[in-house]
């Protein structure tokens, strides 16, 4: 690792309006590989002052700014982060592996894919898909009703407070980008699992467009800092929170009356692989894509599959497909290595393997394909009952007589489903989508696209920009 | 009951156990016994033999006990790991339900309870009663006859019977919970007499009880020499309290000093148990020393990599793996899902279960998904 991310702690905050002389102390978080990040210890009144400052800047320079200009500025910042040699990109590539636990090739892959989501074409298509006429963010526009004299306009929050979670690089930036697109002063409290990229983005944005940079604040503080959070809840009119059900309930309880709370809870995903995708000529490509969908984010994303249901009666049996999948996961160990995991995480994988092996000895049709270490694990299990995965590249393969059976098998947990990748369903796709959608799934896609929802995807079934705005109509 | 060969080995093992925890069992002697036990089990315990054969291991291949394959605790859930007909079992101990649900309980069939007791009694006496004290034992568990399949309660029953003084008893009713008033009367009586006591129970039952004492502002100053043995995790049965905080609560509400609090680490799948060395060290040397556990001479414990299951050097965190001669009737080598690390002086520290680690990304933890699946079932 070069000097860029090494040695003295990196400042992982962007707090316009905070006088550095007023910082009374620092929180330093040590990650592996000599990477350390530093965050100011804010007093609640300092945070309140920063938030007031963000609101004032917004009123002055953001509220009346055409959305097209905001898109251009965000895209320019994203382009910098995409450019080899950019100093902040270098910091991201060097420090994020130690911070997030992902391998360097994984960090590079994820960063490059995420940056595409913040490009001008992606953002414009997001705006168009949600508003049809994005001009509603700039002024009154004809109402979609088409009634003569009826016009409408969308207003974003004055100040949106985002509470991030998890270690997937880019998720927090996407949330910030959405918030800026609807012209909200935006403050992000980062997660300890990935507190760096949002700051690098904010710094880059401030460089590209000073005014926009002054409407965005990002920092981290340790969990349980109730006084700081209370100050942010008080100042914000919208709260966007990522995390488990407990976190969301806690925020709803603590937020003062009248705050809009938008929650993105954890979700899980799975894949359905039909006979057409198991034909001799295509099965290898199917297995390759299925392996990649497991490997990306080391299976820690809400888009990552816990299980593949594989249809019987095709040219490749589900059990043979499990072998192919394992072969591709083995290949990915070099191309896209898994990151380091904790003994507890490895122990969970060992427990899953042990359970599978014991069932096999007891006579169940269960087969394990795995290297010596926990790098990946494919458990073929003839029992089709849904069973979750301990993740970190541990995937279950289960046979079904018909893909429609799989939709039934996951019904008990369907309200938690994010993505279902469907391959080789042919003309049955719509029928499957209907059943899965009814049950709760929010995205049906291909194996290849599984890890990378388009910017325009309904996030957990909702429209991420429309969730942030309120509307004013004129009837003349 | 064990078969003839088993009874012969058991008799030898009982002799070894009877020498106590201070009689060293050198590696060669342990190795010879362990390999004999392994060969015995390989011949009679078919699922275990199948497990070994999958690894290409037979007794002929094992030139040292470290190469005896350890079965994971999960195997006790799906396989009948016993060296004889089931009807010969004198008891069957079952693991408590986990997040996987009650149908996933593990079973440990005991062909020879006397061997279990032969390991249990000297080990417990050495670490909980190192001063030879004969104390009333007050147990925060229900009586064994009400919960016949709990190895912990069986164990408490045996030590109470063999080592407990008059006034020993159970203070939990499976339906009514902790019998607070009875316990209060008993403790007040012993305090008046100046008789030290030994409290025994699960960590979560102590937390429940101490929370109640705090609510009521009820505080005891138990006579000097009083002690406490706690065991087990919380598994959602009470609020989670870190061990150090719990010991501070024992001191505050019961008047039992830190070095008189002994944590026991045991599992249904093992015939032997492990205890904190603090009280024993305190009695023998005057200083409690660092808090860790040591295996009795008839058990070897190693810490193995959670990634590869290969042994780790002292200090590194991995999974605990035990070779326990007291497991003669089932499987002597057991790979646990418990995290720990070896200490420099040959002891080990238990760091908790390797489960329930929250996912680092935005996917859902296994146990939460399982819970959701169970809730959805009619």
Q: How much helical structure, as a percent, in the residues of chain B?
A: 25-40%
Helix vs. strand class of chain B: alpha/beta
Number of E-state strands of chain A: 18
**CATH topology-level fold name of the largest domain in chain B:** Rossmann fold
* Poorly predicted regions of chain A: none
Mean pLDDT reading of chain B: 94
Give the C-alpha Rg of chain A.
24 Å
Helical residue percent band of chain A: 25-40%
CATH hierarchy, class of the largest domain in chain B: Alpha Beta
What is the CATH-assigned architecture of the largest domain in chain A?
3-Layer(aba) Sandwich
Q: Looking at this structure, what is the CATH superfamily of the largest domain in chain A?
A: Aldehyde Dehydrogenase, Chain A, domain 1
- Mean of residue pLDDT of chain A? 95
**SS-based class of chain A:** alpha/beta
In the residues of chain B, how many domains can be counted?
A: 2
The level 1 CATH classification of the largest domain in chain A is Alpha Beta
**What is the CA–CA distance across the termini of chain B?**
42 Å
Proportion of beta-strand residues of chain B: 15-25%
